[in-house]
Amino acid sequence: MTQENNELTDVEPIVTNQGSKRPPKRGIIYLSTIPPYMNVSKIREVFGEYGQLGRVYLQLADPESTLEKKKKRNIAKKFTEGWVEFERKSIAKKVAGLLNNTQVNNRKKSKQYDYIWNIKYLSNFKWTHLHERLAYEKAARRQKLRAEIQLAKKRLTSSQQT
């Protein structure tokens, strides 16, 4: 495992014909499931061993159900999916191949012992695509809420008139 880590971290910058260094292309991996009690800092710690990380985004679980559960007892936030950006595309590909379908933690006493990484490298995917998707979902949620409010107002006025 240590030899593989050395291979992934010992990467030289790309040099063009003119001798100027261009920034390496970034790679993004998709985590379809996030184990319980795993947060952004732990994700950074795990994937930071393999290479330099850029941005990390974890999608929170259904906020309505977590609010109700929080009232009952203090629980950790649950995440459903996530995206991790690596500074180097090649490292992201190697990490996705190396960790996909492997155990999250090898210690038996760990809370993540029974969980397996499900990782996919997203080719031709940019961080802006993720922002666009999240903005679209937010706008759709707002529009749905507005439609529900209008329907409730319409029902209220029709019931008052009769």
TrEMBL record:
PANTHER family: ACTIVATOR OF BASAL TRANSCRIPTION 1. Residues 1-22 are annotated as: Disordered. The keyword Nucleus applies. It comes from the Eukaryota. One of its GO terms (molecular function) is RNA binding. Its main location: nucleus. Keywords: Nucleus, RNA-binding. SUPFAM superfamilies: RNA-binding domain, RBD. It is found in: Nucleus, Nucleolus. It comes from Rhamnusium bicolor. Belongs to the ESF2/ABP1 family. This is Activator of basal transcription 1. One of its GO terms (biological process) is endonucleolytic cleavage in 5'-ETS of tricistronic rRNA transcript (SSU-rRNA, 5.8S rRNA, LSU-rRNA). The lineage of its organism: Eukaryota, Metazoa, Ecdysozoa, Arthropoda, Hexapoda. GO terms for cellular component: nucleolus.
